[in-house]
Amino acid sequence: MPQGKFRLSMVLGRSPNNHPDRVKICREMGIKSCITSAPLHEVGRDQYEAAMRQQKDEWAEAGFSIPVYETMTPVRADNIRRGTPGRDEELRDYIAAVEAMGKAGIPVLCYNLGKGGSRTGWVPMRGGAISSQFDYAQSNEQPREDDGEVQTEEELWDNLTWLLERIVPVAEKAGVRMGYHPNDPPIHPYQGSAQIMVSADAYRRLLKIAPSPSNCITFCQGNFRAMGEDIYAVAQEFTEQDKVVFIHYRDVEGTADTRFTETFHDNGPTDMARMLEIYSKAGFDGAIRPDHAPAMGDEDAEKTRGYGVLGKIFAFGYMIGMMQSRNLPYE
Predict the structure, then answer these.
(1) Extended strands (E) in the chain
(2) How far apart are the first and last CA of the chain?
(3) Stretch 287-304: mean pLDDT
(4) What is d(CA 53, CA 59) in angstroms, rounded to the nearest whole number?
(5) What domains can be seen in the chain, in order of their start residue?
(6) Which of 163, 4, 191 is nearest to 93 (CA)?
(7) Could you give the count of Cα atoms lying within 13 Å of 136 in the half-sphere of its Cβ?
């Protein structure tokens, strides 16, 4: 199996003008790939491709490519998620978005039909840095962050199946690979409602629903670790199947069924160098980003919420050092 190449990437907003300081720092670190989201919410579907091309050109002028669109869904999909009237119209928008990605040359969509999650608190880390923590018991005592909607596992699987059976053939024809991101936190139930993408077995089921080179996985290390899975075996399994199209590289201490804390990249329980070797030697060739990191220095953890720039600088240096020491190709 040919060794793959990592594309070091960072979330930088929809435009280079959103965070010019971060764009400059990425240039200084040699990061050339921008993870962003599709600029579609204010344009009609007949303008999707033009909007994507304009965004892609804007980032190219700044020195960056766009290997991945990362978003819960590229267009509104509440009715698809719920299985309620109106989902056929949402599907038409979804299809148009994926087709436009193919035409514009955006190869990967990182998505999730869940409603998103949260953390329950902040804890001090090494040297006074601040990181997030999730406590399952506390999460059930917190006010719900949605409209109180409750769905069953069967309903969620039915609705996901409905989407996959319709969108994956479109993605395959368009040359777009769809990487489903785990529920975060990866626990069922969560605040009274079901969540389904919370285990490796759930991903095996997802892949069987619509067998295709385009039906794939965003491998979020922190979430698979928080599931309590054998992180090394699962990463090897899915990467060797050519199903990992995007990597979120981070670590956590603990599991979602009790409590987990997001760690620095160098002081969690996972052998992070081993993970890089697994991905590379199993043939992964695509975008990897360092994902969440503790707030450092004067950063406000409540504002940065794992995305402070200091932690990213530390993480990139750590990642690049390991890649160089083990001769793992990257750019």
Answers:
(1) 6-11, 33-36, 65-70, 108-111, 121-124, 130-135, 177-180, 215-220, 244-248, 252-255, 259-262, 286-289
(2) 20
(3) 97
(4) 10
(5) 6-325 (3.20.20.150)
(6) 163
(7) 17
pLDDT tens figures, 195-227: 999 999 999 999 999 999 999 999 999 999 999
Rounded CA separation 262/250 (Å): 8
Q: What is the rounded CA–CA span in Å between residue 162 and residue 297?
A: 47
Residues 6+ apart with CB under 8 A from 154: none
Treating both helix axes as pointing N-terminal to C-terminal, what angle do 87-104 and 153-174 enclose, rounded to 10 degrees?
30
In degrees rounded to 5, what are phi and psi of residue 294? -60, 150
Q: Would the pLDDT of 144 be above 90?
A: no
If you search the block for the tokens 């060739």, which residue do you land on?
285
Cα separation values, 208 from 81, 205, 250, Å: 19, 5, 27
Amino acid, single-letter form, for residue 161:
T
The interaxial angle of helices 48-61 and 87-104, nearest 10 deg, is: 40
CA distances 30 to 57, 183, 223, Å, are 19, 31, 27
Residue 104 structure tokens: 């514009």
pLDDT value at 145 more than 70: no
Report the DSSP pairing between strands 259-262 and 252-255.
antiparallel
Supply the pTM of this predicted model.
0.97
Q: Which helix (H) or strand (E) holds 48?
A: helix 48-61
